[in-house]
Amino acid sequence: MLRKAVSLFLLPKIGKNIRERTSVDDETRLSELSVASLRAGTIALESMMLKSLSQAVTTLQISTRDEMWCDAYVMEMPRTAADSDLEALVMLATRQLYWLEEWEITETRVEELAGFADLWLTPLFREGELVAVSGAEVQALINGSLEAVRKCALDRANYARASELHIDGRRVDFGRMEELPSSPALHGLFLESKWNSVDVFYVTPEAYGLYCWGTGA
To answer: Which domain of life is it from (predicted)?
Structure first.
């Protein structure tokens, strides 16, 4: 997956019984055709990437300073920011890339986006798992590491190499640690679901999100 270099996205086959408690229009969800097109690199990504650069995205990062639990981060943007799950996925993947590489959005030239897509996003989708899942499966995958990361961060809050919590780059009090994910997922896509590395795209009633965690052990 995209860490400080590149992290691989896992995107699933969309389940047929992912209705849960939602009025979400199924047509906005990633179809099997969309997933196949992402993997094949036949979808033009540039317009969605460009749209992401003008969108407000909230990023919450927990740094435990622990070799096993390391860091976890969540990125979210409003449901109103994208017209579909596909567009939201590409937008969040773009902002994840910018955040990890510490690139300045204001310095981006439109003509650079095609190169970014070829070098970064297209390989991500081509090599990812691409598995669509229910909201319950999303929550189980996220909670499998996030709860332990939160506990570790609190336990190490007073260490010499103390854990830290940042929201949009600013260090904040641990009392805000549970602000993201903002609400339970309705459905999502596993981008990576290994025992030591997790990337998952998810959809809630109010937001699109991306959760990432990886161990250094």
So the answer is: Bacteria
Q: Is 57 left (phi over 0), alpha (psi -120 to 50) or beta?
A: beta
Residue 81 Cα distances to 23, 64, 78, 91, 216, angstroms? 18, 31, 5, 9, 34
Strand order in the sheet with 207-214: 131-134, 187-194, 197-203, 207-214, 71-78, 58-63, 164-167, 170-171
Query: Which residue type does 49 have?
Result: M
| Cis geometry, peptide bond prior to residue 181 (ω within 30 degrees of 0) | yes
Number of helices and strands in the chain (H, E): 6, 8
Q: Can you give the C-alpha Rg of the chain in angstroms?
A: 17
Q: Give the span between the Cα atoms of 203 and 217, in whole angstroms.
A: 30
Which pair of tokens denotes residue 100? 């990890």
Predicted confidence (pLDDT) per residue in 177-217, tens digit: 999 999 999 999 999 999 999 999 999 999 999 999 998 76
- Note the pTM of the prediction, 2 decimals: 0.85
Residue 29 is predicted with a pLDDT of: 75
Determine how many CB atoms are found less than 10 A away from the CB of residue 17. Answer: 6
Amino acid type, 33: L
For residues 40, 46, 51, 57, the Cα torsion angle rounded to the nearest 10 degrees is 60
7 token code pair: 């992290």
By the 10 Å C-beta count (0-12 exposed, 13-18 middle, 19+ buried), 205 is classed as: middle
Residues constituting the chain: 217
What distance in Å separates the CA atoms of residue 39 and residue 132, rounded to the nearest whole number?
A: 14
Higher-confidence residue: 107 or 209?
209
